[in-house]
Amino acid sequence: MSEPVRVAIIGSGPAGLSAAARAAQLGLSHVLLEKTDHLSDTIFKYQKGKHVMATPARLDLRSDCRFDEGSREAILGIWDEDAAANKVTVAYRAEVVEVTGEKGAFHIRTASGDTIVAEHIVLAIGTQGNPNWLRCPGNDLPHIIYQVDDPEDFRDRHITVVGSGDAGIENALGVAEEALENRVTILNRSKDFARAKAKNVSDLMEAGENGAIDIRTETQPKIVEPGWLTLETPTGDERIECDVIVARLGSVAPRAFVESMGIEFTGPDREAFPKLSPTFETTVPGIYVIGALAGYPLIKHCMNQGYDVVEFINGNSALTPADEKDLATIFANLPQKRPVSEWLDYLRARVRIFADVSPLQMREFMLDSKVAYYPAGEVVFEKDEPGSSLFAIADGHALVAVAPGVTVPIEQGSIFGEVGLISGRKRGATIRAGEDSIFVEVSRTAAIKLMGAVPGAKRVIERISLERQLLQIFKGGLTVDDLAPVIDGAEVIRVPAGKPVVVEGDAGDDVYVIRLGSMVVEKDIGGRSIFLRYLPAGSYFGEMAVLSGEKRNATVKAAIGSEVIKLTGAGFKAMLAARPQVREATEAAVAERAAMNSFIESRKISYASAVDLYSDTASFIMKEGLGEATDALLIDENLCVGCDNCEKACADSHEGLSRLDREAGRTFAHLHVPTSCRHCEHPHCMADCPPNVIHRGPDGEVYMEDGCIGCGNCMRNCPYGVIRMESTPPPKPGLLSWLLLGRGPGPGEPSPKWTKANMPEGKKSKKIAVKCDMCKGIAGGPACVRACPTGAAIRVSPEEFLSVARLEEDAD
């Protein structure tokens, strides 16, 4: 047993190394325990040549070790130099296996049998040694790896990276750059890349545009096989070649080891962090936690914490964190004057989504948020305004305008704006401060990070959004209390395209609400599957079997990749029992559906030919993704004469650039679906727009405001090829000039030759994204429909498409 030390630091990453250097500078007896034979094992395991960024740029570095952005090798070299210059005492190959004792006399036992006695312990072990594993059949196969050491090891291979955080993106870029023969795919289960740095996302998109990486969003692994990987995509399962899977799914705290010391966590979730005081002290006096284990993964944050924690241990209680001045600025304009620490505690205590957030996490989230005072009656945002941030009510309450002169309150501690956060839609209602209030505006990026890092916050946001969605669907005077039996047992289920949620003939006692996507309903009649109806997001199904007690009388399957909310039958019945008027409305809807099913059953012989049409219709909808459309352009080929008036009118209404390609696209039952925006219920193009200029209008139109920077993300994210990057052509002479004098290119989109010849000398218009906006703001509606001389062009929703298809069959 060695001589006791004032402080023992476990882990030599950026946080631990900075702590040890500060202890050495202060003359404190110390030891830095590292289980490997080198410093900073996490950085050491970065892929060779990786460029390490020093973010956030606004944060000052407070450490006795240097750090600036640079290559992995350069940074490790500098830290070795600084450790030696600061005379840091390092014990290599000293893996800690047990900690006992108490403040002033902790006993630390290593795997080699040595024991270190320390007055204080600083845990800086990080989480990288405890990665999240791939969760699907085949996840134990040897070609699945969880880090990339050297991109040179990957040549002429099919490589799939699972995970779209910084680590996953950097690995994908590294192996893609190493050899052009590599075929690299990266999977992201969501639409955007909220957990990654903007620079990494930009580099990834550029690599995708250049063909170096296949970027697959809303996609996840389903089955791993030797040499193959089956993907669950928005349009169904897909099997791709795959020699190596790089799983970068994040990591969690080594909870068993930490709890063995008596340290408590913020909650039972696997992703929870230890409970910490503002000075990083745990629930065990004398043991401190810093770095990624504290919820701060950024290197600069970690190094500042290492410096600060040793100062606190040495008695410097007056030291303020490095981000104090930035946070003080955020709170400066509030009526009450409180220190930053008090404001943070105030918000955590009064806002439900912050209840499980640690003090350290709270500091990080607030740096990406705004806090503002709103006097009574002041508008927070207007209906139909663009916006995707989330608001939390710290003091006072908000009023939602649900009808002229009618408002509904949202109480202190709750949130609003979650619809814009989840769906990207414009604000659905005008919201004002109901009294003098303090609201926290959390940016979309920060909110998504919050939901990912703090399971308790995610549960609160999802519960509130479920409550409000169900209140909107069922209406009838329901209250949040009425919904409690339903919400308590609710479960959100992801359903890939084509997969049945309920199957005809099965027993079932659950009701489903479509949260995202859409469904088709089919019934077996005479041995054939007949299409009954289309169900968009916001619809519900399954209630017929619940109320009747009989078996499922139809099959409901996902038209596209969807999410449904599963409600237990018992909870659903309890909700209906609370409000008789809701039950009456529901039973009336059930009776109407049953009558329609009976009618179709009775006509099954005369409907024999229609059965095939309906079945084919449902198949076409799912295959072409029309299930997520809110508005699609159709052309009846029996009426179309090929005049191209639709394209010309579109171009003349939009600065000379047509938003549709009449000849492109697929045809079904005489109905042609040209290449034109479908205005999806949850638009793919909105997923990653850096200037945030793509929005959804109140009538469902997806349009672009001025301000496009030409990044092309929307074009790449659109699965239907309806967005293109184009330069605005020069103005054309008027129609009369063309008719009488032959000037200009005539109606429609000018040819590239004319555009080039008439572009002002020295001027080159930058390319921006162009797409159909349903002629937003133009009197009379879509120009393509108005210009069609035969009535062949129509715009319809998916359910209207089905009606038109039926008419076509009847006409035949």
UniProtKB/TrEMBL annotation:
Q: Which residues form the Cyclic nucleotide-binding domain?
A: 353-468, 474-593
KW Transport (keyword) present: yes
Q: Which PROSITE patterns match?
A: 4FE4S_FER_1, 4FE4S_FER_2, CNMP_BINDING_1, CNMP_BINDING_3
Protein's UniProt keywords contain Electron transport: yes
- Give the SMART domains listed for this entry: cNMP (SM00100)
Top-level enzyme category: oxidoreductase
Q: Which residues form the 4Fe-4S ferredoxin-type domain?
A: 631-663, 699-728, 766-799
Name the UniProt key words of this record, in alphabetical order. Answer: 4Fe-4S, Electron transport, Iron, Iron-sulfur, Metal-binding, Oxidoreductase, Transport
- Gene3D superfamilies in the record: 3.30.70.20, FAD/NAD(P)-binding domain, Jelly Rolls
Q: Write out the GO MF terms.
A: 4 iron, 4 sulfur cluster binding; metal ion binding; thioredoxin-disulfide reductase (NADPH) activity
The protein here is known as Cyclic nucleotide-binding protein
The scientific name of the source species is Sphingopyxis granuli
